[in-house]
Write a structure and sequence with these properties.
The chain has 9 helices and 14 strands. It is α/β, with parallel strands linked by helices and 300 residues long. The termini are far apart. The protein has one domain (2-289): Carbon-nitrogen hydrolase (Nitrilase/N-carbamoyl-D-aminoacid amidohydrolase, 4-Layer Sandwich), CATH 3.60.110.10.
Length: 300
């Protein structure tokens, strides 16, 4: 199975046709290279705010609503492309006012779309500091989800979520073989935090993780002005995979796809025959944790 993960720049659109043309160009590029699973980054949908004009795109609250208003329409575009090119697509995540648990605040939501048109969403679980203030993004109403596809069992950890081991472990215990990590990071340190999270979750779960990033500078927003990152696809550094665990990695700030083969059989093999067996042995850690409580010793 071949994965394509994006280093994706945000663009200004004068009309909807320009967005459709960009989406189509990106999907064609990946599909022509043989990719079957395409991963777009966190908050890649913020460019949809430009369709409401500069006064809206430059205003944080108005831009959140402008993007949310267009998500259903953009999902329809990606659904059509997934069917046409026979690929699975993880859409650029977006602020979505879903009207359920938090009707007055958006969640950070992405959608995994299969070629047959079926799809489901994943909401971000834990918000970063900027999402708490000033964005005021709400915790998603959709729990962690396992997407059972023809490519394998897939889970999604949106950016900061990848830095919390128990979230990844919950997905692995549910059978996930691939973890998708769409991200949006301003500084290089932020990129590395998410990358190290993605690589660590691949090690612990003996699975493959694919990280996508926003890249570049825009002058039409006050919220996603500068973003840093690159695409990367990671595996456990063990039997059947590279010694550094890197299946493929892009170039910082350079837009485009990073693509690698990541067959399910290799994941099954390393879980069964690996030099280490993190996926299996995690339960021993839990047993020891419950049997040996932590004690406090005051040495002051």
């Amino acid at each position: 199975m071949k994965i394509a993960t994006a280093a994706y720049p945000l663009d200004w659109f004068d009309n909807w046709a320009e967005f459709e043309a960009k989406a189509r160009t990106w999907v064609i590029d990946a599909a022509e290279q043989g990719a079957e699973l395409l991963v777009f980054p966190e908050y890649g949908a913020m460019e949809l705010s430009t369709l409401a004009g500069r006064n809206v795109s430059m205003d944080l609250e108005q831009s959140l609503h402008a993007v949310s208003d267009r998500v259903a329409q953009s999902d329809a575009v990606y659904t059509k492309l997934a069917n046409e090119f026979d690929v699975h697509i993880l859409t650029p995540s977006a602020p979505v006012f879903d009207g359920d648990m938090h009707p007055d605040r958006p969640v950070n939501r992405t959608r995994l779309i299969a070629p047959n048109g079926k799809s489901a969403v994943q909401d971000k679980q834990i918000m970063t500091m900027f999402e708490r203030d000033p964005w005021d993004v709400a915790t998603g109403s959709a729990p962690l989800t396992i997407f059972d596809t023809n490519l394998g069992k897939i889970g999604v950890l949106i950016c900061y979520d990848s830095e919390f081991p128990l979230l990844g472990r919950a997905l692995v215990e549910a059978g996930v073989e691939y973890l998708l990590v769409p991200s949006c990071t301003e500084a290089l340190a932020g990129y590395w935090r998410v990358r190290l999270g993605a690589m660590s979750r691949a090690l612990e779960g003996q699975c493959v993780s694919a990280m996508a990033s926003l890249v570049g500078h825009v002058d039409w927003s006050t919220s996603v002005t500068d973003t840093t990152g690159m695409g990367g696809i990671y595996a456990p550094p063990d039997t059947g995979f590279p010694s550094d665990g890197v299946l493929a990695v892009g170039e910082i700030g350079k837009a485009g796809w990073t693509i690698a083969d990541a067959p399910r059989s290799a994941i099954a093999h390393v879980r069964r025959e690996g030099v280490v067996r993190n996926c299996t042995h995690w339960s021993e850690k839990q047993a020891h944790s419950s049997a040996l409580p932590v004690t406090y010793c005051d040495l002051r």
